[in-house]
Design a protein that fits this description.
By secondary structure, the chain is α+β, with helices and mostly antiparallel strands. The protein contains nine helices and 15 strands.
Length: 329
C-alpha cells in the first residue's frame, strides 16, 4: 500500500525512509541515553511497557468513544471500526475529554514505572509528567501535519520530552507516527520556527508535504509498525508528523502523547495545574473531524458552548468513512 501524509505521497525508497533504531540496550545507562538522545533526537523502546496495561487502557478509552458512536458496534470493540459519530454533536465533550484523559488504566500507562524510571535516568532527577495528557483517536482518512512540539510547550523549561505510545497495534498504513532524522539539528528551524510561541504567534502546521519537509529540514523519515508496549520518545526540536490512516478495515488509530520534565524545573502553565489553560477560550481537546491546517488549533481543539457541546462548524460528525462497510461485507 502506498503511504501518504496529509494526502501526499511519502517517498519510501531506500535512503528516504527507514525503521527507527531501537534503544532498549541503553536502558539503565543514563550517560548512554543522553548521548543517544542528543545524537538521534529520539529514542525508541520496543515493548518497554507491559502489553496488558496498554491494552486495558485501550479498552477503557474505546468503550467511551463507542458511547458517542465513534465505534461501529457491529464489530468487536478492539477492532475499533469507525462508526457514524452520531453522538458527537450533542455530547458534553468537556466531560468526555476529562473522562478519557483521567481514566485509571490510561494514567497507568502514562505514569508507568518503567517509563518514569527511564526519564529519571535521562534527566538525572525526579520527573514530572505534564498534568494534561493527549490521547488521540485518529479515524480513517485522518493524519497530522508536520511540526515540532517546542513552540507549543516552551513557557517553562526547554528540557521537555514527548512520549508517543501506541495504545494497541499501529501499522504504518494505520497512521503510525514518523520522525525526521536529523531535524533536531536543523539551523533553519532553530533560527525562526523553534523560537515561536504557538499561541502568541498563531502557528499552523509547519508544512503538509513530506517530500518538501524532508528536503528542507532533515534526512530520512523514520517509522515502524508499532506493537502494544512500544514507546517512542523525542525532544521538543524533533520534527515529526503522522502517516495518514488508510486502514483497509476502517480501523481507528488510538495513541497517546504525554510530556515529561524534571520536577524541580519551571513548568508550562498552559498544561499543568488544577485549571488547565490549554489554548485558552472555551475549547476542548477532540482531534480530527476536519482539515484546517490547524488554524486556530482547530485540527485538535474544538470550540464548545457552556454545556460542552460543539460550536465549530464544518465538522464531519454524521457520516462514516467511505469504504468502511464495503471492507467488512
Amino acid at each position: 500500500m502506498e503511504l501518504t501524509a496529509n494526502g501526499r505521497r511519502v517517498d519510501t525508497a531506500p535512503g528516504r525512509f527507514a525503521p527507527l533504531e531501537p534503544a532498549s540496550d541503553l536502558l539503565g545507562d543514563p550517560a548512554g541515553l543522553r548521548e543517544a538522545m542528543a545524537d538521534r533526537g529520539y529514542l525508541f523502546f520496543p515493548r518497554l511497557l507491559d502489553a496488558d496495561t496498554v491494552l486495558a487502557a485501550r479498552r477503557e478509552i474505546l468503550t467511551k468513544y463507542a458511547v458517542l458512536g465513534e465505534i461501529d458496534d457491529r464489530f468487536p470493540l478492539d477492532d475499533a471500526v469507525a462508526g457514524d459519530r452520531t453522538g458527537v454533536a450533542t455530547a458534553n465533550l468537556r466531560a468526555f475529554s476529562e473522562s478519557v484523559r483521567n481514566g485509571y488504566w490510561y494514567r497507568a500507562v502514562t505514569d508507568h514505572e518503567q517509563l518514569l524510571g527511564f526519564y529519571r535516568d535521562l534527566l538525572g532527577g525526579e520527573v514530572h509528567c505534564y498534568d494534561f495528557r493527549w490521547p488521540r483517536f485518529v479515524r480513517p482518512g485522518e493524519g497530522c501535519g508536520f511540526h515540532c512540539d517546542g513552540p507549543y510547550m516552551n513557557r517553562g523549561t526547554d528540557r521537555v520530552f514527548t512520549s508517543w505510545i501506541p495504545l494497541g497495534r499501529v501499522r504504518l498504513e494505520e497512521g503510525a507516527l514518523m520522525v525526521l532524522e536529523g531535524s533536531h539539528r536543523s539551523e533553519e528551524l532553530h533560527a525562526g520556527y523553534l523560537r515561536a510561541d504557538a499561541d502568541v504567534d498563531g502557528l499552523v502546521w509547519l508544512d503538509d508535504d513530506p517530500v518538501v519537509v524532508q528536503q528542507r529540514y532533515g534526512r530520512r523519515w523514520l517509522s515502524n509498525d508499532f506493537a502494544p508496549g512500544d514507546v517512542l520518545c523525542f525532544g521538543m526540536h524533533t520534527l515529526h508528523g503522522a502517516l495518514d490512516n488508510h486502514s483497509p478495515t476502517g480501523r481507528c488509530r488510538l495513541s497517546s502523547d504525554s510530556r515529561y520534565q524534571r520536577a524541580d524545573e519551571p513548568v508550562d502553565h498552559r498544561w499543568n495545574g488544577t485549571e488547565i489553560e490549554g489554548h485558552g477560550d472555551r475549547r476542548v481537546f477532540y482531534p480530527g473531524l476536519g482539515q484546517w491546517n490547524n488554524e486556530d488549533f482547530q485540527d485538535e481543539w474544538k470550540r464548545i458552548d457552556e454545556h460542552g457541546r460543539l460550536l465549530t462548524t464544518g465538522l464531519a460528525t454524521g457520516t462514516a468513512p467511505r469504504g468502511r462497510q464495503e471492507a467488512h461485507r
